[in-house]
Design a protein that fits this description.
The protein is α+β, with helices and mostly antiparallel strands. It contains 11 helices and 20 strands. Strands 1, 2, 7, 8, 9, 10 and 19 form a 7-stranded mixed beta sheet that branches.
């Protein structure tokens, strides 16, 4: 055994970087091991390269936005808050801004600024970084005591923090290594599935709308008569189905993709059916002598018009003044209830996060320490906790990383 350290952290993402820095600030000798040559690789592509750092919500709202095992994160969220990560980044020269829904971004709109700042923070606190893959966590008398790298180097430590992420975006290095390490220590890993993932739909007209982004729409996802999820915001049509913030959040509530679900989109949620009918009637009076297909330009995005015309059942060449009241009301209903059939999701490789992970029943929520092996800690996405979009999942990484680094 060589290179004795107090703490070895496996994984150079946000959870691992915060854990390393926090432990080093306590005066511990820390080695952060990352198999990618570039640290925080996944962080650099989050938020379409902008990085939704955290949310301006208070802790109670953070807990409300955690979809799985929220109570486990109570101590973590109170120990290291959204305000704490914002203040830390500001001290490192990363200015922030707050956008709709309390989403906090770097003022530069560059995720790389956040990643580089966290790396600087860890190294300036005293953590050393080793570019290597970990093959195995070592134990002695039931206690974690070091690691073996893929090249066979044995590195001793008093404790080990597993912060390896999940299995989403495997091209960034999230290939499930942490689950293997956890199982070797006797931990249970719950079923893994994609979450915050685009959804596939059955309708053949959907690919015609590829690239169309709809803002300020309301959605409902139902399983038969049972409401699964409802939301308001932005969605995007793709060649395979739908994506965008409200869709990604909806996916977190769909537990069984072997079934089909109804996705209903209200294209005009600010208007009641009666108000929308009056609005359509005014447009029809303006375009009374035009064909129906040419009378919706003031109401809908151009790309959506041909689809709505086809679904309405009104002939595209019918003159507007000939459209009956009943047909107009069917159009109103369609605009308030555009229905799609969700028949699956994209793969975990396209998911923002992994749902499932190391069982929280086997981790101390106040310290992130394993209940099964002394000296073993967990942080970040490897744990069975996940939240909606909006900066909440990154805050889980910081907060659990802080607790692990505070106690390892």
């Amino acid at each position: 055994m060589k290179n004795q350290y107090n703490v070895i952290v496996i994984g150079g993402g946000p959870a691992g970087l915060i854990a390393s820095a926090t432990a080093a600030k306590r005066g511990k000798s820390v080695l952060l091991i990352e198999k990618n040559k570039v640290l925080a690789k996944k962080l650099r592509i989050t938020g379409k390269g902008r990085c939704n750092i955290t949310n301006s919500a208070d802790v109670s709202d953070f807990l409300a936005n955690v979809n799985v095992n929220a109570s486990f994160l109570y101590s973590a969220f109170y120990s290291f808050t959204g305000d704490d990560i914002i203040a830390l980044l500001e001290s490192l020269g990363v200015k922030t801004k707050t956008e709709r829904g309390g989403r906090v971004f770097p003022a530069s709109d560059k995720a790389s600024d956040v990643a580089d700042a966290l790396i600087t923070y860890a190294t300036e606190c005293g953590a050393k970084i080793l570019n290597a893959a970990v093959k195995e966590v070592l134990y002695s008398g039931g206690c974690a005591c070091g690691v073996v790298t893929s090249e066979g180097a044995r590195i001793a430590a008093d404790s080990v923090v597993i912060a390896t992420g999940g299995i989403s975006y495997p091209q960034t290095g999230s290939t499930g290594d942490g689950y293997t390490f956890a199982k070797a220590a006797g931990h249970t890993v719950t079923d893994l599935r994609p979450s915050l993932v685009p959804l596939t739909t059955a309708e053949k007209w959907v690919p015609e709308l590829m690239g169309l982004s709809l803002k300020n729409v309301a959605i409902r996802v139902t399983d038969g008569e049972r409401l699964i999820y409802s939301d308001f915001g932005e969605m995007l049509f793709t060649h395979f189905g739908v994506s965008g913030p409200v869709i990604l959040s909806a996916s977190a509530h769909i537990k069984d993709f072997k079934k089909t679900y109804a996705l209903t989109v209200d294209l005009k949620p600010a208007l009641t059916p009666e108000q929308l009918d009056k609005r359509i009637l005014r447009d029809f009076e303006t375009f009374a002598n035009k064909n129906f297909s040419n009378a919706l330009g003031a109401l809908l995005p151009q790309k959506l018009i041909s689809v709505v015309v086809a679904l309405s059942g009104i002939p595209p060449t019918e003159k507007v003044h000939q459209i009956t009241k009943a047909a107009r009301q069917r159009l109103t209903h369609l605009l308030k209830n555009l229905r799609l059939t969700v028949n699956g999701s994209r793969s975990v490789a396209e998911a923002v996060i992994t749902s499932g992970g190391v069982s929280v029943a086997q981790i101390n929520p106040s310290t992130m320490a394993s209940k099964l092996a002394d000296g073993l800690y967990f942080a970040g996405e490897v744990i069975d906790v996940d939240a909606y979009t909006g900066g909440y999942n990154l805050q889980i990484a910081y907060s659990t990383g802080f607790l692990a680094g505070s106690n390892a």
